[in-house]
Design a protein that fits this description.
- The chain has one helix spanning 27-46, and strands at residues 6-12, 18-20, 24-25, 51-59, 68-78, 82-95, 103-120.
- The chain is of the alpha+beta class.
- Helices cover 15% and strands 49% of the residues.
- A hairpin with a 3-residue loop joins strand 5 and strand 6 (82-95).
- It is elongated, with a radius of gyration of 16 Å.
- The protein contains 1 helix and 7 strands.
Amino acid sequence: MSGSLEGVIRVRMSTADGHYAGGLVDGARVVQLFGDAVTELLIRHDGDEGLSRVMNAEFLAPVRSGDFLEIRAKIVAVGKSSRTIECTAHKLIELVDPNDSAANVLAEPLLVARMTDVAVVPLDKQRNVK
């Protein structure tokens, strides 16, 4: 398989995801979603979940309960056992007021976080690589 494999996850942040005042979502929740996207890519690419070794995340805008996020992950480099994956999280929809059900579809998706992940899949676990 080529190094251009990509995956997409769309999810709504629930009230349970709100960790701080105003329903603010902890950045660790976004990193967890990045981890899910990375795991899916590794399974598709190698037939194994692998293991993230290095994650470098940057948080650019707040995420709140009720927001809809789109997580994208793409393998950008493949080594003997390492895989470099770039991840982005964009907000697509946000609540107008946390105490109301009105929501806005954003005219342009808002980049809220990005991450580079270096994952390792041991040679003896690589089932799909030729």
